[in-house]
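for the writeup, i need someone to sanity check this before i put it in the appendix. the sequnce is what the collaborator sent (i think, or maybe the updated version? ugh). structure was predicted straight from it, no edits. if anything looks off just tell me and ill rerun, i have time this weekend
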Amino acid sequence: KKIPAPVSMLGDNSGECSISYALLQKQTQLTAGLPNFDFDMKVEIVSFKISVKVGDLWIEAVSDSNQITTKQKELIAKVKSGDRILVEEVMAKMPDGSTRKISGIIVKVK
């Protein structure tokens, strides 16, 4: 069976989702899941970018691991209900050792 494309996940959320500000504050890392796949295979996030609109500007911060960085947490702290957070340019290390870009996440803050 072919390995499906992994999806990036923030907690239990992926794709386009709504997350409360309180739950966002508790997140420490980005993970990857293999939905609808019968086997337990490890996919590791190796880097990602978080973008937040502050005023009229989009501000970005990059992580070179699966951990949400201090800078990214500072950006997340600036959002309010109705704002969007973009998780983009997500790179994942596959079970075969290759690295590939996977889907990001669009979070609407509740």
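Residues 2 and 71 are 37 Å apart (CA to CA). The beta strands are 7-9, 15-19, 31-33, 44-54, 57-63, 84-93, 99-102, 105-109.
thx in advance!!
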